[in-house]
Specification:
Blueprint: E1 3-4, E2 10-11, H1 15-24, E3 40-42, E4 46-48, H2 50-53, H3 60-80, E5 83-87, H4 93-107, H5 111-114, E6 124-126, E7 141-146, H6 147-150, H7 163-188, E8 208-214, E9 224-229, E10 235-240, E11 246-250, E12 253-257, E13 264-268, H8 270-275, E14 285-288, E15 295-302, H9 324-338
Parallel strand pairs: 3-12, 4-5
Antiparallel strand pairs: 1-2, 5-13, 6-7, 7-8, 8-15, 9-14, 10-13, 10-15, 11-12, 11-14
Helix pairs in contact: 3-7, 4-7
Length: 358
């Protein structure tokens, strides 16, 4: 049964129950101090990628110059920010609006229906079941769907008969963007054009589409919509609405990302940072809760198969060899053990020496 707020309104999912339980158990009432300091709103680097997406049209030297300028801009942003925005990306505005409508219908379903094992292949997530303090509570819900299951016969869409087709179309469109961007960034680090597809081990069966909803939160000053984290993939393509709330770490300060109606956001994941030998940065980011408005977003995660080695753009690499499955298992173990993700430092060939430890 949905939880009641102080004014009698209901919470679906029952995030208010989680909040109060953590408060009663001694969970702190405020996020980390740095999240309470003044936050600047900034425009991310904006890059037109039409020359990477379209086929045909003009060729020759002019086309090559445009592609080089585009790749140079993305590589610079990936190194300096870890994030950038792309326009003329080929994902239709009407398609994204249709996706938003389908998301709203999906998340309006009763909580018990959403968490039913069969719905969207049991991919429903909400809050954070391992949270031990409010610093670890995410005021959000999501369906984290493997691409392989979207068109699968055993994937239950309930009465939302049109959701499957829209999700598949969005996944296909975002996949084209992710492949083009990742390929161009890899070329900047010496990956030969026309060689084996990058990243190795990634295809339509290994990636994920995540549908997110951040409900309005009466405890907004004290609560994260999504806790600070880095992404455990190669690349993330994000479409967010105009509510805002995404923040990233830049120069040791949180920066609020100004929404842009025609742009998709791209961010580097942990695997790409490792593959690039730290040339590209997987940057910590979070979503802040909003007291008045709910927020929707959809994210495409470019992931390899679990047994795929992450590899490197060249030796020497600061990281030892590891697979995506090994990385994911270590992240999950650390979260269960410490309440937070450690990530790439676990895989350094020469871990840093901690003061006081031998």
């Amino acid at each position: 049964m949905p939880a009641l707020f102080a004014d009698g309104a209901t919470s679906d999912p029952p995030l208010a129950d989680s909040y109060r339980a953590l408060l009663r158990s001694g969970g702190i009432a405020h996020p980390p101090e740095e999240s309470l300091s003044p936050v600047l709103e900034r425009d991310l680097p904006m890059i037109d990628i039409e020359c990477l997406i379209t086929t045909g049209g003009e060729g020759g030297a002019s086309s090559m110059r445009k592609k080089k300028a585009c790749a140079d801009a993305m590589a610079r942003a990936a190194s300096e920010w870890g994030f950038f925005q792309v326009t003329n990306h080929g994902v239709g505005k009407e398609l994204l609006e249709e996706m938003r409508k389908e998301q709203a219908r999906l998340f309006r379903l009763p909580f018990e229906t959403k968490r039913k094992a069969g719905l969207l292949n049991g991919s429903y997530r909400w809050g954070n079941p391992t949270a031990t303090s409010l610093r670890q509570l995410s005021w959000s819900e999501a369906f984290h769907v493997p691409l392989a299951s979207i068109s699968g016969r055993d994937c239950d869409y309930g009465k939302l008969s049109s959701l499957r087709g829209v999700m598949q179309e969005v996944a296909d469109a975002m996949s084209r963007v992710a492949d083009a961007v990742a390929g161009a960034l890899a070329e900047k680090l010496g990956q030969e054009a026309g060689s084996a597809l990058f990243p190795a081990g990634c295809d339509g069966t290994t990636c994920f589409l995540r549908l997110n909803r951040y409900p309005a939160c009466p405890f907004a000053p004290d609560t994260f919509g999504l806790v600070p984290h880095t992404d455990s993939d190669f690349l993330t393509i994000l479409c967010q609405d105009q509510v805002g709330g995404l923040q990233l770490m830049k120069d040791s300060r949180w920066v609020a990302v100004k929404p842009h109606p025609d742009a998709l956001i791209v961010n580097i994941g942990d695997l790409f940072q490792a593959w690039s030998n730290n040339r590209y940065k997987s940057v910590e980011h979070k979503v802040v809760a909003n007291a008045k408005a709910e927020r929707f977003s959809v994210a495409y995660f470019l992931c390899p198969s679990y047994d795929a080695p992450v590899g490197t753009c060249g030796e020497p690499s600061p990281y030892r060899s590891f697979t995506f499955g090994e990385y994911r298992r270590k992240v999950q173990d650390d979260v269960k053990r410490t309440g937070k993700k450690i990530g790439l430092p676990n895989f350094l060939k020469h871990p840093p020496i901690v003061d006081g430890l031998k």
